[in-house]
Design goal:
The chain has 413 residues and is α+β, with helices and mostly antiparallel strands. 21% of the residues lie in helices and 25% in strands. Strands 11, 12, 13, 14, 15, 16, 17, 18 and 19 form a 9-stranded antiparallel sheet that branches. Strands 4-5-9-7-8 form a 5-stranded antiparallel sheet. Strands 1-3-2 form a 3-stranded parallel sheet, with helices on one face.
Length: 413
């Protein structure tokens, strides 16, 4: 059997694909396999989830959802759209949502995927406890506050198969979304903090050629901001982040109030997200460097032009996860959606890494980048701690793959 990732730029090299329907079956598959890795919805553009052994998908696992106070216990393979539906029906909410509600909770957390907002860290920061099937098939629980916890959530699937997560939730809330077009570039570079502090969630889409389109998502329990100083004009028709794509794929705009899970993502759960035939990259720098980093990226506008579909600029608060790109620093994220031209994308990603080098960018683990192990290790203060945790937890390397071994070489037996 073969299975490709979502963008179909990668074909997994697994000898076997397993679709367990119980935790006990997950344990059995892991225990008998010489090499194993779990894959979510395949919304990754790097071979981070690949394996030459058994590829596990949790898509047929029974749905778990238990809400107790401000904690939800959830099956790890549940898609965010379904989780949001269950939470909202129970009067609860997540503090943030990524652009796509189509991806799984575990996949989101293990790569530190995020939404946007100055005060909102990655979804991994909501995790209180995680239940993992280890290399011998044993089920173990790791809780917040224990020594290895902050290395166990954003773990790239290298510590085991997550089957259950317990997460922090909050009371449900409503959001409205407005899009401002033709915002001058100087608004971003000269007034970055004011712009991104103006609402609960702010994203800018740009081609780095003098203007941006700013998407402002305001919680209805916060006052309406005066954004007349932005420049440009508020759109009177719905927009898609990628020029030329149909706006009906996107969540409601034009100031129409709605529940959090139908406004915080850019895309509706009912439609195939974004473009599909694309590649993506994302780089994070400390928020204090946002303006000079923006200016550095404008020098690459001509390099971007042949392959860039759109670039999103958003902010994310710091978290404590060792391998999170926002570990210990509030960040600005520069996200790039590219045409599916792998060699050209890798070359431009390398140029971005060099342009942002003074600001020590960290990449999104599931997207396209070229940074080497030495550079990556220098940018994550707990890198060696994670390497030691990986060696203790999986000494035989059952959950490793070529990518993991490149970043965290397995010690000799």
């Amino acid at each position: 059997m073969t299975r490709t990732n979502w963008a179909k730029n990668l074909t997994f090299s697994a000898q076997e694909i397993s679709v367990p329907e119980t935790v006990e079956q997950v344990q059995e598959v892991v225990a008998r396999s010489r090499a194993v890795h779990v894959v979510g919805t395949g919304h990754s553009f790097s071979p981070i989830a690949d394996t030459t052994g058994t590829l596990i998908t949790l898509e047929r696992m029974p749905e778990q959802f238990e809400l107790t106070g401000s904690t939800a216990r959830v099956s790890a393979g549940m898609r965010l759209a379904r989780l949001a539906e269950l939470l909202h029906a129970s009067g609860a909410a997540l503090p943030t949502m990524p652009s796509l509600p189509h991806i799984t909770l575990a996949g989101t957390c293990t790569t530190a995927t995020h939404g946007s907002g100055n005060t909102v860290p990655s979804l991994a920061s909501t995790v209180r406890a995680i239940e993992l099937v280890g290399p011998d098939g044993t089920l173990r629980r790791v809780e917040r506050g224990t020594p290895d916890f902050n290395g166990s959530v954003v773990a790239l699937g290298a510590l085991g198969v997550a089957v259950t997560l317990e997460i922090d939730v909050e009371p449900t809330f409503e959001v409205e979304q407005r899009v401002h077009r033709d915002v001058p570039w100087a608004t971003l570079t000269d007034h970055f903090d004011a712009l991104y502090g103006s609402a609960y969630s702010v994203s800018s889409f740009t081609q780095y050629r003098g203007t941006a389109e700013v998407w402002v998502k305001r919680r209805l329990d916060a006052p309406q901001p005066d954004l007349s100083w932005l420049g440009g004009h508020e759109s009177t028709e719905p927009r898609h982040p990628v020029p030329g794509q149909p706006a009906h794929h996107c969540t409601a705009q034009l100031g129409e109030p709605g529940p959090w899970h139908e406004r915080l993502p850019h895309f509706r759960a009912a439609f195939t997200p974004s473009v599909g035939t694309e590649l993506q990259s994302e780089f994070f720098v400390a928020r204090e460097h946002a303006s000079p980093a923006l200016q550095a990226l404008t020098t690459l506008a001509n390099d971007f032009a042949p392959i860039l579909l759109t670039s999103e600029i958003r902010t994310v608060d710091a978290d404590e996860q060792w391998l999170s790109p926002v570990h210990d620093r509030p960040s600005v994220a520069f996200h790039f959606t590219w045409r599916q031209e792998a060699e050209a994308v890798a070359a431009v990603a390398n140029k971005i890494e060099h342009a942002l080098a003074p600001f020590t960018p960290r990449p999104h683990w599931g997207k396209v980048f070229t940074l080497d192990r030495t550079t990556l290790a220098s940018r994550y203060p707990r890198w060696t701690d994670f390497a030691a945790l990986l060696n203790r937890t999986d000494p035989q390397g059952k959950f490793r793959n070529t990518t993991i071994n490149t970043w965290f070489p397995q010690p000799p037996a």
